[in-house]
C-alpha cells in the first residue's frame, strides 16, 4: 500500500470533517425550512378560512338586514317579491359550499359546512314560502311568520356561523398539532444526526491517529534497526514527500553514511592488510631472490643463463670453474659453441630445438679449452619466457659427470674382473653367457668347469696369499688353452669355467670331451711355485646348452652337481653326461612337481634376516627370505626360485610370502613401537605385471601395513628386459608409497647415472664386494668407489653378506651411514624365533665397532 503524505492525510481528514458538517447544516436547514413552510401554509390557510367565513358573515348580515326590513314590511294581503333576496341567500350557501379557501375545512369537517349551507338554503326557501303565505295570512300570522323568520336568521347567525368558526378553529388546532409533531420528529432526527456525526468524527479521528501512529512506529522501527545495524533496505517512507519522508530520508542517508563509513573502514583495513601482505610478499620475494642468488652462487652444479641467442649473461662460480672461463670470456661466443667446440652450423639445430621445444638434455663429452681436459657432463637446457619476441632466458645446468663416468668405468672393469686372477668373475661370466644365449639362441655350446681338488688345504697350509698365486698360475695355463670368446672365468673360489662351441650339436659332445681332457691334463701338470713342487689335482665336468639348461644359472647348477659328484668319488675325475646330468634333470622335474603343491602342503616358510644400522647397531628392518622344506630337506631358494620363475609359480609364492611377512612386521612394529621395514624380493616377471602396484598395495593394506614400510627389492639385471615399461612400473609403485631397492648391486650392468633418474631409494651392495675387503686393497678401493657414487646419488646403502667382525671394522671406516645385512649380526630365522625376541622388548640391538671413520669414500675412490 502506498502511503499518502501526512499533510494530505490531514487535508483529507479536514475535508471529510467539513463535508460532514456542511451536510449536517444543509440537512438541518432544509428540515427547518420545510417545517416553516408547513407552518406558514397552515397559518395562511387558517387566515384565509377565517377571512372567507368573515366575508360570508358580512354578506349574510347585509342580506339578513335586507331580509329583516323586507319582512318587517310584510303585511297581510300584500305580496312582496323576495326572490332576489332568496337567491342571494342561496348564493351565500353556494359560496360556503364551493369556496376554495374552505376546501380543507370541507374535506376535514364536511358536516360543519354542510350544516351551515343547508340552514341558509332553508332560510331562502322559508322566505319564499313566507312571502307566498303572507298575502293570505292574518296579522298574527304575519307577525308569527315574521318572528319565525327572525328566529331562523338568528339561528344562522349564531349556531350556523358558530359551528363554522368552531370547525375552522379545530382545523387550525389539528394543523398546529401536525406541526408540533413534525417539529418533535425533526428534533429527534436532529439528535440522531448529531450522535452519528459525533460518532463519525470520533471514528475518523481514530483512523487518522492510527494511521499516523503506525507510520511513525514503522519509522521508529526502521531507525532502531538501522542503528542496530540490521536493516539493509529502507522502508517505503523514504519515498514520501512530507515530513515523515524527510525523516525517513534523513535516517536513510544517515544509514548510508554509516554503512559507507564502515565499508570504507573495511576497505581501509583491507588496503592496510593488502599493504601488509604486499610488503610481506615483497620481503619474501626479496628473501627468495636473495636465497635464489645465493643458491645460484653456492650450488655445485654449473648454472648459466643465456639470452635467446645463446650468449651467456650470467654464470655462477661453479660454471666459471668447470669451464675455466670468466664471465666476460663466456659472453663472447654462444655457449653451445664453447661447450661442443663445434662451429655454428653444427650447434644451430640444437639451439633451434631448445627454442622450439623449450628444453634439451643430453650427456656430452667435451674438451676444456684452457687445459685440454676431457670432461663428461649432463647438459640440461631449459627455455624461460617467449623466444619469438626475442625476449626470455635460457637456463643451462651442467652436471659434471666426469668423475661418475670414470668411476663407473672403473667399477665396471673391476666388477667384471676377478681381483685375484684377472679373469672374468662369476657374475660377469653369468651375464655374458646369458647375453650370448640371448644374442644367438640357436648356437649350441658346452660350459666346462674345472674344480681344483683339496684347494682349501693349500690355503690352510701355505696361507691365503699363496693360494691366490696358485689360482693365478692355473688361470694363466687355462688362458693359453682357450680363446677370448670362451669367456674364461673364475666361477667359484677354486673353480674355473669357460665355453666351447661347435658348428653342429652332433659335434659338441666330442669337442667338449676333448676340451675337458686337455684341460685336466694341463691343470694337473706339476707346478713349481716359490720353491715348492705342487701336485695339483682337478675334476672336470660340463653342461650343454640348450639340451641341459636354458640359461647360465641352470648350466652352473648342473656343473656344481657334476663337480660335487666328482669330488664325492675321490676327485681328479672327468664327469660326463651319463654320470650325473640325468640325475640333475630328474631332480629338477621332481622339485617342479612338488613345488606346485608346496604351499598347499604347508611346506613353505618365511625367514627374516635383520638389516642393521652400522652406526648404532639398531635393527631397521628385515628381509623376507623364503624357505622350502621338502621331504625333510631344506631346498635352497637359489634352486627353487628359478624353478618357480620358470614354471609360473613365483606369483603365488611371492603373494603368499608378502602378505605373510607384512602381517608379521605389522605385529612387530606394534610390539616394538617403532617403524620397521620389510624387504621383499620382487622377481622381474611380477614387476612387469599389469596393475601389480594395486595388487601389492592391496596386500599391504589388508595386513594393515602402510606401503611406506615395504621395500621392494629388484635386481639390477632386470633392467635389461624392457627398460621403458620397467621404469613406468617403478614409478607407479613409488607413487603408491613403496620404497624400491636395487638388489645385488654391482653384479648387473646398469649405469648408475641411469639409476639416478629412477625412483630408487636403496642400493644393496652384493656380497662379493665385501668378501675380500679385509685382505685386498683392490677390493677396498672398489668398494670405496661404489660407495662414493651411491652416496653422491643419495641412495641408502645396505651391504649384504657381511660375515666377520673384521669386515665390519673395515666397513665402519667408510662411515656410519651404512646398513648391514649379514651373518655377522644374524642369520635368517623363522617368525617363531623373532616373535620370541620381540616378546622380550626391542630385539636386535647389535654391538657395532666403535671407531671414527678413517677414510671418506671419495678419498678412497679418487686415488
Ligand atoms: P638375496 O635376495 O640376495 O638374499 C640374500 C641372500 O644372502 C640370502 O640367501 C641370505 O641368507 C644370504 N645371506 C645373508 N647374509 C649372508 C652372509 O653373511 N653370508 C652368506 N654367505 N650369505 C648371506 P638365501 O635366503 O639362500 O636366498 C638366496 C636368494 O634367493 C636371494 O638372494 C633371492 O634372490 C632369492 N630369494 C630368497 N627368498 C626369496 C623370495 O621370497 N622371493 C624371491 N623372489 N626370491 C627369493
Ligand atoms: Ca634380496
Ligand atoms: Ca642380494
Q: What labels describe this entry?
A:
863 residues; Beta-Lactamase; Alpha-Beta Plaits; 8-stranded mixed beta barrel; 6-stranded mixed beta sheet; disordered C terminus; binds calcium ion
Number of domains: 4
CATH C-level label of the largest domain: Alpha Beta
CATH superfamily of the largest domain: EAL domain
Write down how many β-strands occur, each being a DSSP E stretch of 2 or more residues: 23
In short:
Helices cover 59% and strands 15% of the residues. By secondary structure, the protein is of the alpha/beta class.
Question: SSE layout and pairings?
Answer:
Blueprint lengths: L5 H67 L10 H16 L4 H6 L1 H24 L5 H90 L14 H56 L3 E5 L5 E4 L1 H7 L3 H4 L4 H6 L3 H14 L1 E9 L6 E11 L8 E8 L1 H15 L7 E2 H14 L5 E8 L2 H8 L1 H18 L7 E4 L2 E7 L3 H19 L3 E3 L2 E3 L3 E8 L6 H17 L5 E2 L1 H22 L5 E10 L5 E12 L2 E3 L1 H10 L3 H23 L4 E5 L2 H4 L4 H11 L7 E6 L7 H13 L3 E7 L6 H4 L6 E4 L2 H4 L5 H16 L3 E5 L4 H8 L6 E3 L7 E2 H9 L17 H6 L1
Parallel strand pairs: 6-8, 12-13, 15-17, 17-18, 18-19, 19-20, 20-21, 21-22
Antiparallel strand pairs: 1-2, 1-5, 3-4, 4-5, 7-9, 7-12, 8-9, 10-11, 14-15, 14-22, 14-23, 15-16
Helix pairs in contact: 1-2, 1-5, 2-4, 4-5, 5-6, 11-25, 13-14, 14-15, 16-17, 19-21, 19-27
The structure holds ligand C2E and calcium ion (2 copies).
Amino acid at each position: 500500500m502506498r502511503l499518502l503524505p501526512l499533510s494530505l492525510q490531514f487535508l483529507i481528514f479536514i475535508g471529510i470533517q467539513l463535508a460532514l458538517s456542511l451536510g449536517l447544516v444543509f440537512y438541518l436547514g432544509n428540515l427547518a425550512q420545510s417545517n416553516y413552510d408547513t407552518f406558514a401554509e397552515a397559518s395562511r390557510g387558517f387566515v384565509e378560512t377565517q377571512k372567507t367565513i368573515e366575508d360570508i358573515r358580512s354578506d349574510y348580515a347585509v342580506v339578513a338586514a335586507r331580509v329583516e326590513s323586507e319582512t318587517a314590511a310584510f303585511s297581510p294581503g300584500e305580496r312582496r317579491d323576495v326572490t332576489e333576496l332568496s337567491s342571494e341567500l342561496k348564493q351565500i350557501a353556494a359560496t360556503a359550499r364551493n369556496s376554495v379557501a374552505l376546501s380543507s375545512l370541507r374535506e376535514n369537517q364536511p358536516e360543519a359546512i354542510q350544516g351551515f349551507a343547508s340552514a341558509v338554503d332553508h332560510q331562502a326557501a322559508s322566505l319564499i314560502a313566507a312571502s307566498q303565505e303572507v298575502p293570505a295570512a292574518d296579522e298574527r300570522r304575519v307577525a308569527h311568520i315574521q318572528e319565525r323568520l327572525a328566529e331562523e336568521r338568528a339561528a344562522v347567525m349564531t349556531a350556523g356561523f358558530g359551528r363554522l368558526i368552531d370547525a375552522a378553529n379545530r382545523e387550525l388546532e389539528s394543523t398546529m398539532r401536525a406541526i408540533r409533531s413534525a417539529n418533535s420528529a425533526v428534533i429527534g432526527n436532529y439528535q440522531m444526526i448529531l450522535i452519528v456525526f459525533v460518532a463519525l468524527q470520533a471514528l475518523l479521528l481514530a483512523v487518522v491517529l492510527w494511521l499516523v501512529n503506525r507510520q511513525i512506529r514503522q519509522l521508529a522501527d526502521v531507525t532502531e534497526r538501522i542503528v542496530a545495524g540490521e536493516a539493509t533496505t529502507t522502508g517505503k517512507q523514504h519515498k514520501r514527500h512530507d515530513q515523515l519522508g524527510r525523516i525517513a530520508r534523513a535516517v536513510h542517508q544517515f544509514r548510508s553514511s554509516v554503512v559507507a563509513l564502515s565499508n570504507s573502514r573495511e576497505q581501509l583495513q583491507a588496503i592496510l592488510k593488502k599493504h601488509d601482505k604486499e610488503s610481506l610478499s615483497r620481503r619474501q620475494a626479496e628473501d627468495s631472490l636473495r636465497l635464489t642468488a645465493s643458491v645460484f652462487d653456492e650450488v655445485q652444479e654449473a648454472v648459466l643463463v643465456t639470452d635467446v641467442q645463446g650468449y651467456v649473461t650470467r654464470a655462477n662460480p661453479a660454471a666459471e670453474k668447470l669451464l675455466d672461463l670468466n664471465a666476460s670470456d663466456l659472453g663472447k661466443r654462444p655457449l653451445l659453441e664453447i661447450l661442443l667446440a663445434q662451429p655454428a652450423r653444427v650447434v644451430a639445430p640444437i639451439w633451434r630445438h631448445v627454442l622450439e621445444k623449450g628444453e634439451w638434455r643430453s650427456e656430452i663429452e667435451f674438451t676444456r679449452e684452457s687445459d685440454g681436459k676431457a670432461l663428461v657432463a649432463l647438459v640440461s637446457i631449459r627455455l624461460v619466457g617467449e623466444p619469438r619476441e626475442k625476449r626470455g632466458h635460457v637456463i643451462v645446468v651442467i652436471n659434471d659427470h666426469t668423475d661418475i663416468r670414470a668411476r663407473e668405468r672403473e667399477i665396471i672393469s673391476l666388477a667384471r674382473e676377478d681381483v685375484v686372477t684377472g679373469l672374468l668373475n662369476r657374475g660377469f661370466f653369468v651375464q655374458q653367457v646369458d647375453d650370448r644365449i640371448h644374442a644367438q639362441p640357436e648356437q649350441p655350446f658346452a660350459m666346462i668347469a674345472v674344480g681344483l681338488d683339496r684347494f682349501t688345504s693349500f690355503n690352510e697350509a701355505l696361507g691365503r696369499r699363496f693360494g691366490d698365486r696358485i689360482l693365478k698360475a692355473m688361470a694363466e695355463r687355462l688362458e693359453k688353452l682357450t680363446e677370448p670368446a670362451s669367456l674364461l672365468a673364475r666361477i667359484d673360489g677354486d673353480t674355473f669355467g669357460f665355453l666351447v662351441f661347435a658348428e653342429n650339436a652332433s659335434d659338441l659332445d666330442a669337442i667338449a670331451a676333448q676340451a675337458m681332457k686337455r684341460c685336466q691334463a694341463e691343470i694337473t701338470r706339476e707346478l713349481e711355485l716359490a720353491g715348492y713342487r705342487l701336485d695339483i689335482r682337478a675334476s672336470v665336468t660340463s653342461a650343454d646348452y640348450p639340451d641341459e639348461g636354458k640359461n647360465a644359472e641352470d648350466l652352473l647348477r648342473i656343473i656344481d652337481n657334476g663337480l660335487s659328484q666328482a669330488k664325492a668319488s675321490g676327485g681328479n675325475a672327468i664327469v660326463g653326461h651319463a654320470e650325473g646330468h640325468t640325475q640333475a634333470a630328474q631332480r629338477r622335474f621332481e622339485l617342479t612337481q612338488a613345488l606346485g603343491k608346496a604351499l598347499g602342503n604347508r611346506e613353505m616358510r618365511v625367514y627374516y634376516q635383520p638389516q642393521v644400522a652400522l652406526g648404532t647397531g639398531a635393527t631397521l628392518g628385515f628381509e623376507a627370505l623364503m624357505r622350502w622344506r621338502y621331504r625333510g630337506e631344506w631346498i635352497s631358494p637359489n634352486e627353487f626360485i628359478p624353478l618357480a620363475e620358470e614354471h609360473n609359480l613365483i606369483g603365488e609364492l611371492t603373494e603368499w610370502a608378502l602378505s605373510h611377512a607384512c602381517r608379521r612386521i605389522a605385529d612387530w612394529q606394534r610390539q616394538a613401537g617403532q617403524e620397521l621395514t620389510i624387504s621383499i624380493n620382487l622377481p622381474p616377471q611380477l614387476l612387469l605385471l599389469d596393475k601389480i602396484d594395486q595388487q601389492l598395495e592391496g596386500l599391504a593394506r589388508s595386513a594393515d601395513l602402510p606401503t611406506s614400510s615395504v621395500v621392494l627389492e629388484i635386481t639390477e639385471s632386470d633392467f635389461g628386459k624392457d627398460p621403458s615399461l620397467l621404469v613406468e612400473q617403478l614409478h607407479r609403485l613409488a607413487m603408491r608409497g613403496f620404497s624400491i631397492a636395487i638388489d645385488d648391486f654391482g653384479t648387473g650392468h646398469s649405469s648408475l647415472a641411469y639409476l639416478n633418474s629412477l625412483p630408487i631409494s636403496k642400493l644393496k651392495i652384493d656380497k662379493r664386494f665385501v668378501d675380500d675387503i679385509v685382505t685386498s686393497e683392490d677390493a677396498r678401493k672398489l668398494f670405496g668407489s661404489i660407495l662414493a657414487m651411491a652416496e653422491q646419488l643419495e641412495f641408502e646403502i645396505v651391504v649384504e653378506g657381511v660375515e666377520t667382525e673384521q669386515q665390519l671394522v673395515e666397513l665402519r671406516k667408510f662411515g656410519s651411514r651404512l646398513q648391514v645385512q649379514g651373518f655377522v649380526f644374524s642369520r635368517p630365522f623363522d617368525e617363531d624365533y623373532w616373535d620370541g625376541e620381540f616378546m622380550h622388548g626391542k630385539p636386535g640391538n647389535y654391538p657395532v665397532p666403535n671407531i671414527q671413520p678413517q677414510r671418506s669414500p671419495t678419498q678412497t675412490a679418487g686415488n
